[in-house]
Amino acid sequence: MYAAAKAKPQSIEVEHLGPAPMSGPRLVAYKPGREIYAQGDLNDKCYQVSTGAVRIYRLLSDGRRQVVSFHLPGEMFGFEAGSNHSFFAEAITETTLAIFGRRNMQERSRELLALALTGMARAQQHLLVIGRQCAVERIAAFLVDLCERQGGGRQLRLPMSRQDIADYLGLTIETVSRVVTKLKERSLIALRDARTIDIMKPEALRSLCN
Q1: What is the model's pTM?
Q2: For residue 196, what is the DSSP state?
Q3: Minimal CA–CA distance to 123: which of 172, 89, 77?
C-alpha cells in the first residue's frame, strides 16, 4: 500500500471565516456534515486536514453518491485540473482545515506538489482495488490502507460510516457489514464498537489484499 502524507500544517490560531493572513494558510473549523466546497465552485484553493476527516464525492445522475476519497490529518485535497470543482467536499467529523490560497500555493509549491502526488498515487491504487478485487479483498485493502495512514498501529478508528465505506468501495452497506462480520469470525479483526477496530492478525489481513 502507499504511504500516508507526513507533512503537518503549521500551528496557527484557528480563524472562523475570517480573512486569510498574508503569512500563511488560515485554519477553519467545520462541523460534521458541513460542505467545504460544491461541484461547480471556483477551484482557487487547496486544503490540508489538520484534525478530523473529509470525504470527496460526486452525485450520479440516478441520485446515487460515489465517494472518491477520504482525507485524514496531514493529507491534502482540492487539487483539480479545471477552474471549477468537479466534486463535493464535506467534513465527516469535527474537522479543522488549513486553507491555502493562490499565494500560499506559490510559496509552498514544492511541498504541496509532493502531497498532491501522494494523493494521486492513493487514487490510482483505489482504482486498482475497485477494478480487480472482490468484496472481501476490497474491505481488507481498505482497512490495511487506513491503518497505515493512521500510523500503522493495530487499533483502527473509523471516522466514516459503513455507508461511506460502501459508497467508496462500490458495495452495498449490507455487503460491508457482512464482510466485516466474516473478518471478525475469522479472528482477523475485533470490534470494540461500531467505529473502533482492533487488527488481530495484520499479516493475514494484508494477504487478502494481494
Answers
A1: 0.80
A2: E
A3: 77
